[in-house]
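Hey team,

Filing this mostly as a record. A colleague (T.K.) asked me to run one chain through the structure pipeline before their review meeting, and I want the input and output archived in the tracker in case anyone asks later how it was produced. No errors, nothing strange. Just documentation.

Input sequence:
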Amino acid sequence: MQETAHYAKKLSVEFKLDYQHVRNVLSLLSEGATIPFVARYRKEMTGSMNEEIIADLQKRHQQMLLLDKRREAILASIREQEKLTPELQQLIESAENMQVLEDMYLPYKPKRRTKATIAREKGLEPLAQLIFSQTTAELNQKAMPFVDEKKGVGSIDEALSGARDIMAEWVSENTEARARLRKLFQRTANMVAKVAKGKEAEAITYKQYYDWSEPLDKMPSHRLLALMRAEEEGMIKVNIDVEGAQATDILNKLVVKSNGEAARQIIMANEDAWKRLLAPSLENEIRAVYKEKADEVAIKVFVDNLRQLLMAPPLGQKRVLAIDPGFRTGCKVVVLDQYGSLMHNETIFPHPPVHEAKQAVQKLKTLVNAYQVEVIAIGNGTAGRETEDLVRGIRFDRDLIAIMVNESGASVYSASKVARDEFPDYDITVRGAVSIGRRLMDPLAELVKIDPKSIGVGQYQHDVDQKALQESLEHTVVSCVNAVGVELNTASEQLLSFVSGLGPQLASNIIKYRQANNGFKNRSELMKVPRLGDKAFEQCAGFLRIRGGNNPLDASAVHPESYDVVKQIARKLQLEPDQLIGRKGLRDSVRTADFINEKVGVETLNDIIDELEKPGRDPRQHFEMFAFSKDIRTIDDLKAGMVLEGIVTNITAFGAFVDLGVHQDGLVHLSQMADRFIRDPNEVVKLNQKVKVEVVAVDLDRHRISLTMKLSKKA
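Output structure:
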């Protein structure tokens, strides 16, 4: 507990948060509570911190733990060398970041065999100390005793050269020197790129970087990642350049204290220290720092896009006919009931080369009538627009709607173990069509079955730190799943695995119990699931819904731990608990002060009342229809000046991509998104948003479409 208090004190200052609230968060997380649970059901303890703040505290706490672990290892290493002084220990214990800590450790870090090591073996360290003290003249005379053929020192010049090697290492390990040079890098460094020799033709994708220079601190994250990718592929040579004269001047001002021969030797050592040791070391370090920053931006873009995609409005429980379009292989057609279960599948061939359009139309009409289909979902891949035109041209005997669905990742799902387990008797094409239909019904429930990296909403996703990316994406999926809530009796194993406190094993156990017992009748039955104990129940129960069970509160986000409070409110109003559910004006009838106790505060009571008024409310927006222009089908149909409606499919740091229905997304650059200056496209658009854009230019050779949201007056 004392350790928790220590970190809570630091974090409360750093984040400008209440100390007790921070301490409570750390305690809850250390006890196994999840971020969604803490944010939703422990508001009194946290001061109503949201998930983002709690996640930031958790991340920073982990960094502090790693720093202290490294600190202890360094202290142990120096102590073992018998070089740990009280002063050094105090400095190490006061280091606030890993960079400073590692700088302090450099002189004591076990080294491979270096030029300085070799010079020490020749007995030249006393000469280096003499020169570095800058208290003596006649260096040749002082160096003469160190000339020893047996030790490999054949002359005074060789003795002085070895001494300089030692001094160069001292300078390179000087904490203050490294700190000042870091600032020089951050202030003046340029990233310089040139095409790799002999790669001029092969590297044409990176032509703009054949001869490129840009201040590192001004470089946008996406360009830095692009350059690093080009370098990784061997197409572009990249260096981080700093003016060497400025660097050596910093070193000279730091360590040169005289004007004699000793000073000249130190200046030479400084030049060597910079070129041979400090420049390469600090360039690698600065690269890593800026790469980490670029990764953070790219990961945030991916996370924001993923959240918007997962929280896209669901169509809801409708009977759906889903089509995975194709030309040569035909269009795979499936019919799903309102719960997403597969009822029928077959293939139609309305397009070239088979041209069985009449048969396809008749088959679709028959299926729509036979299964009372309400909606037709059409994948937006190959032959998507042609299939949409076909469907929209059919006069069905019943009212229904046809919707284009983004099928990114459907092929990944259809080939996955999850899909094979769910549909062992069907091939990939059937599974893909099922995924398209289910994605329309409930994007969140279907997309959790796919690795987020396969959904296609990232920016340089393969170039960023994969561990950090995976952690961020998983946190986002968990956050979205728990924000919406999960129907316990119909949810897939994959969806359940993301519920607070569960995971793959407990999700599997829940499915087995559900199948063996014909579903759950109430939340308390969860305690009968093998290996699902008190802690897991506490964490998951509030996020699981049971509609039509024997306790109406189980269909809401009211946590079972608060059911007694609901009963108290009901008694006060002389009602039954189930009469509170959906009751309008309940907030005006309840005096929250009457129900506050040491466990339940105002925040929790307000949440309970909101939930009772609108039980099980879905935080996602309502579904809206959209159709592309019928006159625009391919990129060849586009002309500059056209104003069209499209759907935002991806958001990056430099702009947004918009689907116009021509199988090639157009780019609205950041500068073309608004009349005002913006730094983040998310200020203007969201994923899946309908936008009106004007075509600026079409490059048919490179299949590039430039768009603007700053419409001309004629538009």
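Quick notes for T.K.: The CA atoms of residues 35 and 52 lie 9 Å apart. The longest helix spans residues 261-310.
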